[in-house]
Amino acid sequence: MGRTALVAGVSGIVGNNLARHLVAEGWTVAGLARRPPADIAGVTPVAADLLDPDSLGRALGMVRPSHVFITTWARQETEAENIRINGMMVENLLDALRPNGGVEHVALVTGLKHYLGPFEAYGKGSLPATPFRETQGRLDVENFYYAQEDAVFAAAARDGFGWSVHRPHTIIGYALGNAMNMGVTLATYATLCREAGRPFRFPGSAAQWNGLTDVTDARVLARQLEWAATTPAARNEAFNVVNGDVFRWSWMWGRIADWFGLEPAPFDPEVQPLESQMAGAAPLWAEIATRHGLKEPDLGRLASAWHTDADLGRPIEVVTDMSKSRRLGFRDYQASDDSFFDLFARLRAERVIP
Questions:
Q1: Does the pLDDT of residue 123 top 70, yes or no?
Q2: Is 333 one of the annotated active-site residues of the chain?
Q3: 100 against 194, higher pLDDT
Q4: CATH (domain of 100)
Q5: Contact 177, 14 (CB under 8 A)
Q6: Are residues 157 and 24 in the same domain?
Q7: Between the CA atoms of 117, 119, 123 and 124, what dihedral angle is there, to the nearest 10 degrees?
Q8: For residue 47, what are the CA distances in angstroms to 33, 34, 207, 292?
């Protein structure tokens, strides 16, 4: 095919799974990160900082991708800083690639904060009705996702490439040291509960416990990214992407508990966030890691309790519509409980959890 990809954010949950998928499909792949992993066979690591234009230009001097996949962001203290920093990262990357030429398509991964609002106003105020549809426009609030989109749109108008935007729900997939990783977070939480004999309590709201929801398998997202980048009808479109099924956490929590050999605690309507439930658990995790010979003794590099709390604590039902890409031919499906089970099995096989 002669297709060459640059995956920006290759160390993250989306970039890692995407890079592996593209290699398996015969692409030539370069993976960009400040500290790109060296264990993804077939991926050429590119070490660069998206906030340092000079070093970025040097690192990308010999890289001439036909397709660019932007799967990274950097969390800041305020949304104003999120907008400034994350918009700049996209601008710097596309500016650095411009002299090389050859870019045909740029794919940007954002998420459902397009509909739910940024962290500072997450799930609050006037929100569109669910299921969220791509035809629903931007909220009347500043959002770093919008700044990233605008940077891609401006560069596309300037340089003539096509684009796609991808809005996953909570992403379930393998990655370590990721800022938004519910699957690994729940795996470490379940392990801590089992080891300490603590109840496996759902940490979120009644709305999430009882309402319908969905998630996005990182492998489904990888396939949609490739599909949109190579399908003419998908050019210059934004797509939601989820597994294709729906569930209630009142059901899924028991499924996860069973996998770990736990008895789920009865639902308590008083929200008990993971950040408080897991506070002070780092020494226990380090002891577990030593006893079982696990590869990562630092709980902080595995669990992102703050982000899982944001998802599971939402006061509204969140369901995502995928009609646009379905109509255009993308019809992948993944059972969501198997998304969790596949991840847990891999974490165990790679000695991340006992």
A1: no
A2: no
A3: 194
A4: 3.40.50.720
A5: no
A6: yes
A7: -90
A8: 5, 5, 42, 32
Q: What is the pLDDT of residues 42-76, one digit of tens each?
A: 999 999 999 999 989 999 998 999 999 999 999 99
Question: What are 82's two structure tokens?
Answer: 């999120």
Cα 193 from Cα 190, distance rounded (Å): 5
Handedness of CA 215, 219, 224, 229 (dihedral sign): positive
| Catalytic hit among 115, 124, 145, 174 | 145
Contact 152, 94 (CB under 8 A): yes
Instruction: Clarify whether residues 155 and 192 are in a common domain.
Output: no
Question: Backbone phi, then psi, for 31, in 5-degree steps?
Answer: -115, 120
Q: From the CB of residue 157, how many other CB atoms can be counted at a distance below 10 Å?
A: 10
The residue annotated as part of the active site, out of 113, 115, 146, 174, is 113
Q: Find out whether 145 and 110 touch, Cβ atoms under 8 Å.
A: yes
* Residue 203 placed within a domain: yes
Q: What angle do CA 194, 195, 201 make, to 5 degrees?
A: 35
How far apart are alpha carbons 199 and 328 in whole angstroms? 46
> Could you tell me the two tokens for 111?
């998420």
pTM of the predicted structure, to 2 decimals: 0.95
| In a shared domain, residues 196 and 101 | no
Is 145 noted as a catalytic residue in this protein?
A: yes
In a domain, residue 239? The reply is no
Q: Are strands 4-8 and 67-70 parallel, antiparallel or unpaired?
A: parallel
Domain span at residue 89?
Answer: 4-168
pLDDT tens digits for range 275-297: 999 999 999 999 999 999 999 99
What φ, ψ does residue 62 adopt, rounded to 5°?
-105, 10
pLDDT at residue 126 in the model: 76
Pair of tokens at residue 157: 């108008």
